[in-house]
Design goal:
Blueprint: E1 3-6, H1 23-26, E2 31-36, E3 49-52, H2 55-64
Parallel strand pairs: 1-2
Antiparallel strand pairs: 2-3
């Protein structure tokens, strides 16, 4: 099982303790972290972003498409 975390609005969070979970990818967890440039840079309607995942998890996702 793989967890997917969408951090599209992370740059807008100003509460103490709010942080990315991208470090879970490096620790070996089956996590995919999704980030976008569209929200913070005011690119409404543009789908421009990236994902962070372990290579084997990314390969499995690529096979599903």
């Amino acid at each position: 099982m793989t967890a997917i975390v969408d951090e599209a609005y992370l740059d807008f969070a100003d509460a103490d303790g709010v942080q990315t979970v991208a470090d879970l990818v490096g620790s070996g967890k089956r996590v995919v972290v999704l980030r976008t440039f569209s929200k913070i840079h005011g690119m409404a309607g543009v789908r421009c972003g990236y994902g962070i995942a372990r290579p084997e998890v990314a390969a499995e996702i690529a096979l599903c498409g």
